Amino acid sequence: MRLGVLCRILLLVVFLSSCEDKDDNLQQYTATPAPLEVPQLFEDNILPPVIPDDNPQTVEGIALGKKLFFDPILSLDNTQACADCHQPENSFSDPRRFSVGIDGSLGTRQSMPLFNMAWNFNEKFFWDGRSVSLEEQIFQPVTNPIEMDNTWPNVENSLQDHADYPALFEEAFGSTQIDSVNVSRAIAQFLRTLVSANSKFDRAELGLEPLTPQEQNGLNIYLDEGRGDCFHCHGLPNNPLWTDNIFHNNGMDEIITDLGFGDVSGDPREFGHFKTPSLRNLAFTAPYMHDGRFATLDEVIDHYSEGLVFSETIDPLMKAVSTGGVALTDGDKADLKAFLLSLSDPSFINNPDFQE
Amino acid sequence: MKLLKKIALFSMTALVFASCKSDDDGGDPVANTTVDFTFTQNFNGAAIANSDYETTNYTNENGEVLTLSKLVYLVSDVTFTAADGTVYDAGDYNLIDARNGTNVNFTPGIEIPQGDYTVSFTFGFDDEDNDLAGGYQDLNSSDGSWAVPDPLGGGYHFMRMEGMYTNSIGSIESFQYHTIRANSHTTLPPGPGTLDELIDTSFVVNLGTVTIGADTDIEVQMDVAEWFKNPNQWDLNTWFTVLMPNFDAQMDMNENGAGVFSLGTVNQN
Fold it and tell me: Which 74-133 residues of chain B touch chain A by CB within 8 A?
């Protein structure tokens, strides 16, 4: 009989402790999960996307991030949004060689296109890799004097005083109190939805559409170590990212003035190294290279064919540097260009989910 | 109060029996163990550290002065063969980036009984692993893709060693010593349908007999100089670039690879 009483007491203790947990859970707000849709080619071939544990994708977070991305409220004088230098029709890049800040200042590097960033496995962002997460990357343009030139306290106050944002932040993160961390989280969530995986080449890989003979020959040149040898930095068809997301000196300058990744790492062996950009969406992302020096894709191909110059940190993958490159024929250049353009994805730049 | 004491005594007795159970069931006097490997690199015995890349000059057997920029290589199928012939093989693989120190420490995913074993591994992938249906998502995601273009036979690189050397006319030239399966073609340049012959150039490295204790770490040394030395003295002026579709170069790399790896220090921790 007394044993029965003891058991009841134990059960009550267990019950009460479980009730306590439930109370805690009720106080923890959770927005509506919106897992990233992974394209089949990505699912089949490469590692899963990088989604931070402390910033899962949610319906409310993505919507808030999109609104912030297109809203000039982040800039000091309310004139410039992220989208001004990362325009959807340009694959979220800027057709100008250098973007222009709120006071008319010119940047020093070309605006990077934005897509498939959740698959940047080493998580180094910008041409020089100075940010080690997408969330961290978002902090920089807001306070950069030659970009939005704002301060984070000012941004937080502006958003806090806004008629809509406190409620939107509450929906996304469970609190009307707005801080810079949640601003960056929301924008990062939106940016991770910018997935491009529907180029002509993607459809060819899925057996939905054939390449032309010219595009197919262009792929052969791309894969040929003796001609294009593009794949050692830009990857193979089984890596639909079309970049290694690593930093190289691709033989553009004899004298290096922009140290790039080397300025971040402090290692002289990395002076003049810049991130390999993806070959996706080249049809929309001119001008090219980290400083936008090439206005056309033809100029880019000419550079690798006969324009290479030597410097101390040049990558050994740059071949025949003493003669400027591997000297592709005009026919090979045309075919290579046709293949490269098959990696462009018009459905990405026209996706209504990505427009203001 | 007496009842509480009885319950406590009963609980403790149950705990003692429960904790004894696993030992009684185990049967093995000595627990199985994993084995750690450390991959190191040297040039004719001189250790290669991160600071040596692009800065330290090495002279190969043929007399060319070179620097290294990149050294990444794949090992697979670490195998432990006991004296009675029992074979333990985790069947896994490891991509080592020597310059960055990535994956230089590797523990195959298998536990084996302690004792003496002949330890071996495969440099690269044998054909069975190389042609695995669906490939490897992690290798496809490494270095842009660690894979080999289909026209060259597909599969994966075994090694990418890159650097600069001073050629016979005194100019600085790059080299790309990439090892893959030897592939020959009916016509060049390679393309769809040109592949004529594909030879597996992976090879098994036998490190000899090693005593595996409770916590053993095995050093595997790579002497980079051997890639240029024996039995084929490598002339970088001849073979410095576009070596992937070069059948003869790949066969020579395979032969030179036989002397590249050796057993280093074995630590019983």
Answer: none
